[in-house]
Specification:
disordered N terminus; about 200 residues
């Protein structure tokens, strides 16, 4: 491996390499050597930026969680426009791109990573927890606008949408069609959509 090559934004380069491995080969193929090889850098580069591989993985998960913030803002801004079903269909499709599903698999697969994340994060599965908060905030905003019924149980609807969405996208085959996701959203929200 070349060691004299200047690397720009090393963390992001390593994170992107890890994601490519997750997508291509799954969580069991993710090792520090595989990441640095995929990133085209010396193995020591990872250890100069992270104390160990589990710290690298924890930072990868935290970085991807931070990206949900931008998605949450865009979803909340869409409240009152289009339809609730279309907005949630697009949000879930974007959220559960192959990378998010792979990150969730990684967290479930690696005990030490889960333990490390639990020391600094809230209870629940990282990424899915934040996704649920994003959906709940959107549904509350739509309720304020009168497009979700006043008595809708948002604290049940949001995790139900996340769980059903994750199950639809978790298969490593082709992602579900938009119409299938929309049917699932419509079914979950059947009693909550204002007429």
């Amino acid at each position: 491996m070349p060691t004299g090559v200047a690397l720009r934004d090393v963390r992001e380069q390593l994170f992107n390499a890890a994601e490519r491995i997750l997508l291509r080969d799954g969580p069991d193929a993710l090792t520090s050597r595989a990441v640095t090889t995929e990133a085209g850098c010396a193995k020591g580069v990872l250890h100069r930026h992270f104390t160990d591989f589990d710290e690298f993985l924890a930072e990868l998960v935290r970085d991807r969680i931070a990206r949900i913030g931008a998605q949450a803002h865009a979803l909340e801004e869409s409240a009152g426009t289009g339809t609730v079903v279309a907005n949630l269909t697009a949000a879930l499709t974007d959220l559960f791109g192959a990378v998010a599903v792979s990150i969730v698999s990684l967290v479930i697969f690696r005990d030490e990573l889960r333990a490390r994340l639990r020391r600094t994060e809230q209870a629940g599965i990282p990424l899915l927890r934040e996704a649920g908060e994003m959906i709940a905030a959107y549904l509350r905003r739509e309720r304020e606008l009168g497009r979700i019924t006043a008595d809708a149980d948002i604290d049940t609807l949001a995790p139900t949408l996340i769980g059903a969405g994750h199950l639809r996208f978790a298969d490593r085959g082709a992602p579900p069609e938009s119409a299938e996701v929309a049917r699932m959203v419509t079914t979950v929200l059947a009693g909550a959509l204002a007429k």
